[in-house]
């Protein structure tokens, strides 16, 4: 009995070896001797800033036979997908700037099989040389406390990604909260509460916010009235090297939070995918890949054999710990969203022409209603202190209604917005430019505001009015700085004209969001990161 | 080409079946003839060892193809081990627990071991030495005074309170050693084992009273760190990359492997805690194939040599390790004289300690 089992086991092993050999005879099989053959393709959910690693993944495919199929996503969205199990089966691995936020969820331990550090980059401050001169600072001995003082005095403006959407913004938020609270170790709820006043003063200097670091860099390039950019050291050094922006990069002495980019295998991955990810990780950790990634992307290598690229500054910096509990981590996000950041002033210019009748109007109403849930996580609803205006239009603007969300009476304001959304009616034609002009005129009439002001334009068709694109351009060029800097985030939907909406986004420094190939719901959610 | 493979396969198959039949008849003796694929889970710090082509070849010479999946040593309990031939955690505690769960295919084998060390950059090590928390025995090697270090962490000492610490060297904020999650990772658990042994007056923690007594210190050691990484490779790579906390807990094998591999360690100073815990890499066989893997790792001279190249100290004589690291004695100690080895509590006690510490 026992002998028979053993024979079966040995035959099984031989069968396995035979499959491996057959695979090898077809050419490039580099899977090693026996064992499980590596999958040819692995599906990886990756942070959007890893787009610059595409070249190395192509090289990896040539060298290892493993092709990485990348789906781009924000860190926090990826975390939700992994924790909920939504990523299981759809992806084999995740590759984010950090797994720290993910690891705060107790469920994560079962979802993650293994991880391999690939490279590192601290979140740093990039300053225009003029600003550095004006403030009399040196990149080598700058502190977040100095940054706070300068911003509080109105002497420094900066851009940073939205911490509820993007890891670089969240890392920066941990850094400044640690520095301004004087915390000596991992942050606590008391540290967050105790430094709120100083953090508000610091964030008064924030002029640009965004859901992704790519858009932030572009916007920074166009806004020479913004002095500094907070982002990964690698992004800042790359912008400087490419000549996109002239930047001096400082890692503040009171501490940084560093991205580690662990290539992570999900527990749900098949044995073949696990093996493929192991090969990919081993390749990325090899000397050739480490050399290429530091030279090309200006991140720091994790291999002792490879020196960092020359442009990367030397010297140690204090590493600030990531909060040790989800309560503290999420509490920090809630505080930022609700009370620390500058408030939002948001105008929704919404096409309610006849063509919107039926499903389209229903989809629009659903997407907007979703932003009015009082219990939604930070970044997924209209935030406290936000002023929201709904401007439905057809042949002309139909109505202009404004609500202000406050922590006290929050539910009433959100209910008000919901009733405004419920009351939308689809009829008439489409006057895109005339309505947009009215939105800007409303802002001009309100005068200067200390807020992130932006306009969302959603239309399902082309402009059918005699106020044309050229008229809007003329109007826009004549606006005061204050209003001319207000970006329009356009949403492509139904039969709308991509070129027309792209043109508006480009002219105003906004961005186009595609709800034809994606969902209207996702587009409205994503735009929250820019408001 | 395909035909050659076909013929070869035929031969292999025949030989394999032959060997299998012989094994089947030969009561319980070891076969050793046909190639066998054995699969198992390993602590992540052995992943590079098993992926090394020379290790693969040496194992193949012994008729073994090994498929090794890295999993946190203390998380192996939660992994479904059906279909696996062995589990190879990095400590005896989880090995004992696994053995209790999976019956007895053979005694666990301990082919190699590695003590825990603390890595520091030069300036950090000098500041520790100047303030009585460490002593340096050379430019790149020294000793960490555990009792003094633990007292400093418990008091919440910061770097800026120590003489000579500069923020330009990253030396500000709370003084602590970065370790890994003690619930899932071996090095993090062993750190608690060593610290609790010191805090418990040189007695291994074995009962609720001692768990209670040492809990506040262990809680502090973990809490200051915030989120911890899940495997020892993470903090070590941070250190090599020039980022992260100034003091990092590592296995001596990680440093030795880096040095033997020819990569420079720069201004790294290896501090051997005067009381430390050692990672006893313990293979728990689940099948005959797994048992055989444990035996060849323990006895085969070539595999012992390769284990040393990956920084491990083979069980038994020290000559192999001493010889291989002779050129790096500026960083590594030859023997471990004067380094007190803290015994590791049982898996249950250590888990209870880790849960209290994580709070």
From TrEMBL, chain A:
UniProt keyword annotations, A-Z: Signal
Domain VWFA positions: 345-505
SMART domains (alphabetical): VWA (SM00327)
Signal sequence range: 1-20
InterPro entries with a match to the protein in the record: VWF_A, vWFA_dom_sf
Protein name: VWA domain-containing protein
Organism: Streptomyces radicis
